[in-house]
Structure formats: structure tokens, C-alpha cells
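Researcher: I'm preparing a figure for a lab meeting and need a structural model of a single chain. I don't have an experimental structure, so a prediction will have to do for now. The sequence is pasted below. Please return the structure as C-alpha cells so I can convert it later.
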Amino acid sequence: MLSLVDGAFRLHNTHAPPDRTTTAIPGGNVRHDSPMAPNTGVDAAPSTSRDPSLLTPQYVYNGLSLPTTELLSLIPPYEAASLLVDTYFDRAHWFMLIFQQDDFRQRWPKLYQRHPGRPAEYSNAAFLSTFLVVIAIGIHYVGPYRRSLLTRHGVDSSLKDRILSCVRAKLLDVMSLGSLEAAQSCVLLGTYYLYHGSPRLAWPVCGCGLRIAQALHLHRRLRPSGSPDFRQQYETRKRCWWAIYEIETFSAVVYGYPHSIWDADCDVEPLDPSAKLQVMQCSRIPDDLQAPKTTLLYYKRLMSELSVVTKAALGELYRTKPSLVEDGKPIKSRRDLQDTLQAVAKYNSRLQQWQAKLPLELQWDRTSDQANYSTPEEIDRDIGATGPRFESHIYQLQAMTLMLAYENAMILTHRPLLSYKLHSSTDSETLRAGSDQADQPKPNPFVSSFEACRTAALRMSSIQSSPILKLVAETYAVTFVSIHTFTAGVTLGILCSMDPLNQQSSASKLALQNVMEIQETLKSRSVVAEQGLDILQRLTKLVMQKELDVLLGKNKRTTTLSNSPSRPSVQALPDELQVVSGNVTSQVSTTEGVATLDRGAPSALPSPDDILYTNDPAMTDALHDFDQALLSYAPQPCGEQEETAENPILWPPTLDGFPILEQTWLWDLDHDPLFHGDLGT
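Model: Understood. Here is the structure written out cell by cell.
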């Protein structure tokens, strides 16, 4: 807006008053010399922070803002801070990579410098807030040895709670600065809540970071400038943006929260794994190694790319915009099933293309059976670790998280097809192609999706036997691992419940046991693992009871895979899904509640002229079993309640102590595509 004002003054051959007060006008009173706003040829207004001198007088005390003064009162002794910063970079930085390590290590000691004239770092409330959250995370993840060192410096675990309480109370003051550090502070604080059992609090805090980032145009590409610091500053901006993008996607996938980023509005480039700081080499964990070797930052680029694919799949396969609305209920388009078949094939292919790009160091199958440290205690004593041994250890942790995220995305992609069954009009046991391949059975796409979900869950459960599991339990990724393996456990429980006596049910139940052992291992460090273990135990009891009822003839067996007794192998999955990726031009008609698809393209499903798709009752029964496990776990309201802050249907975190309940949205009956009879009318 102020650019229009300047233009208006230029029409009269003069300049707008330089000393004008414009704090309430968009774009007013910003600095153009911020270190995070290089001269890039882009309007600097949205990419700078507000001048601290504009703070109103009532917020100033002894030359410092009151928020800054209160935050400064919490910084620990220098020696303790150094230990906790090392702990953060040992335990959390490899997973977040939200800022440049070298830059942060150079800046934080300046907070302890007492010079007249208020050094920039000393008065920067946003960076101070970021630093304190780093300290709090470090306190949370210190082991016994480091805790004893902190005790010598007069620091105990209560400092973490005091820091989090103060930063949370001063968050609005920090956000009002609108700086890159303010966005980083929101992301760090939000992820702490996200990974420590408070997703309802985490999501709006991270959302504030998103809004600050968008105001700073972090989602936009910058034109190169002649500044020698441009590359470093641009990469710092990109790190913050892609960290926010990942958190938004993670929250949408895990908790079913709506995604707040519009990809069409973003043109920022991916992270550059070979980017280097234009400053001295770091003596700790380098953010990247010499090209063309795999770098520690390459993990972040891969996770960002996976988030883009996952977000697209989430939007297309679980879209919330119905074609029609009748009696307040969405009615899906009659083309939805055909579109879903093609979309599943498309995203299955994109995910496999992503996996094919993994470097050797980040391939879980190559690193799962070895560990560079024998015990968590050994890592605890290796303060400020560096060198090939520690770098290899970090690669192993990153390989595990990438594998879990990939397999979780596979389950997300194939879940919509698990609710369907396919029947040929001739009731043949296998589906066959045209006359030229009449003797070759063709796969059932719904069976393929069943196997894809099962294979993904089995692979996630396999980390139970890896020596790396106990090491990841001491890192910031412990809840990430707990959440994804919980998804694997729920998937295995539901698939077992669909057909308790099938040939593969035994292997699935053993894998479910492995998942529960994983949760048992992690529960001391993650409330999600503790709650997930309880729910999985309840679900397992229901699965075993159902199997017993089927054996005793008390319950009718439903065989969801009867159409294809020869189950497809994992290796054949891409070819199997290829048959549903053809151009389908026919319409869907319904007969007695069962949808009949006439395939017009020979490259579509290999089938007779008429193929019947119907709801799979085995899936509906399995979802009911899972719902019963949740009902027996979830806290129940006592009597009628008014709509107050104590009512769990409202936003306040009455149930935030039970974050695991929100992670089950993927298997909620309300989200089942056929539970409400949406398959055409």
C-alpha cells in the first residue's frame, strides 16, 4: 500500500516524508537492512522484520522490551547452554534442519555478551525465543551423563517447563516482529507440542509460523542478487519454508487436519543439498558433505519431495469437496470410483519413483541391521559428536524415518480401495484379459491395494529387530516413529480382522506383535507410544476373539480375497496397478445397490464386459472392531454437558492428553467411502 503512496508523491516530483509513522499501514515502518532480507531485486517489505524501536513505550524496560527482558532471565549459564546446544544438534537437528547450524552456533554466544549499545542478538526477542526453545529441547533429550553435568552447572529439568511457559506466554510479542526468527520460533515450539502429545496446541502455533513465512514470502522464489551472502540467506529461508510445509503435511496425514498451503501459490525451489555456508567450516555436525557424496541435508530435500507427493494424494483421494449435497450429506460423483482407481495407480507410481532416488546411505534395507553406537549411553557421552562414525549414525536414523514416511504414504494411497470388492459377472475365481491372453489371470486392483497396505505395515513392523530402534528413542524423531508404527499396527489389526483364517493372517499377527513391542520400547519417551500400545492391545484382543469365534463357528467367515486366491507378489505391484491407469471413458450404472462399471478401454481392468464393484463387508466389520477398541479406550463424558471450555466437542484441549485418538481418522467409519452408501444413487 505504501508503494502507492510513494508513487503519488513522485507524481508531484517529491518524496514521501521519511519520518512518517505508518505502523498500522500495510508495508509500513520496516527495515531494509535486515540480514535475512538480501538485496534481491524483490520488494523487501514482505521479507523484513519490524524495527524493534517501534515498540510502544509501555513495552520497554531499561532499554529492552519487556518480553526480551523476561526471556533473557531464563537463559542458563554459558557452559550449560553450550552442552544443551550440542544436545539439540545431536538429537534433533538432523530431523528438523530448520536453520543453518553454523549460523546458529555463531549467533547464540552473542546473547552472553554484555556490551553497551545493546548488541543485535541481545535485543532480538525472536532469536532469543528460538534459542530458548532449542535449550528446552536439549533439556528434554539429555541422558543420565549429560544430566549430571547440567546439575553441576545448577540446571535441572524444571528449566524446560519454565522456558516453554514463558515462550508460550510471550508468543504473540514474538510473532508481532514478523521476522524469520519468529517463524522459526513458532515452528520449533509447535513441533515440540506436536511430538509431545499436544497436537491441538501444536497445529495453531505452527499455523502462526506459516502465516509469518507467507508474509515474508518464503514460499516465493527470489531473484539472485550480487550479494555474496545471497545463497546462504536464500537457503536459510528455504529451510524454514520446507520445514513448515512438512509439518502441515504431517498434521494433515496423521491427524486429518486441513492443509493450509496452496501449491499453486508456491514457486520456491527445493533445498540444495550441496549448499554451503560462506563462513568458516563447522567443527560439529556439518550440514552437508563434499559433493557428490550424499549429504545430511539431502534427507531434508527427500522428505520435502515426499511431502509434496503425499499432500497431493491426500487432496485427491480424500477430497472434501463433494459433487452434490443432499440432506446435508455429500454424494460422490458416479465417476469417483474410476477416478480413484486411476489416482491410486498414479500416486503409487510417483511414490515408487521417489523411492528409486534414495541414495545408498539413506536406504533402510542397507542400514537396518547395523548400528554405529551400541547403546544410548554411549551416544550420551559423545558430546558434540562429529566425524564419519557419527555421520553414518545420522544417516541410519534418517533412513529409518524416510522408510516409515514412505510406507505410511503407501497406506494412505491404497486405503480408499480397501472398502471395495470386485466380482466378475461370470463368478470366475480369477479375472482374465481378452481373447489374446485368455489363459493368463489378471490381478484384482483391490487385492493389489490390500497387499500394498499389508506389505507397507509389515515393513514398518520390521524395525523392531533393528539395533537402531533403541537409539532413535533418544532423539526428536521418537514420536514420529511411534506414530507411523502405530499406523502399521492398526493396519495389520484391521487386515487380520477382515479374514482371521487366511494364509497370511499368522504373519500379520506376528507383525502386530512386533509393533506392540516397538511401542513398548518407545513408551518411556513418547506419550503417543504409550497410548498406542494400549489401543493396539485392545484391538489385538478383538482380533483374537474374532478368530476364535470363526474357528468355533460362532461367526461367519468373510473372505475378502476370494476373488483372487493367488495373491500377487510385492514385486508385481507396479504392473498390477498399471492395468487401472488406462483411460476409462465409460459411465457407472447401479443395479440393486451394486455399482457396475463398463470398461471402455482395453488397458483398463482386465475383466469381462461387466464387472461388479460392491462394498466389502469384511472391511466394514473390521472397522467396527476397531471402533470398539477406541470406544473402550476413549474417555467418556459424564452426563449432559453444556458447551463450555470443559466440553470435548469444542476446541480446548480436554482430550489433548489423548492425541492417539485423532490419529485414527484414516480408519474412521465416517471416512469410509461406502459406509454411508455414497457409491452412486
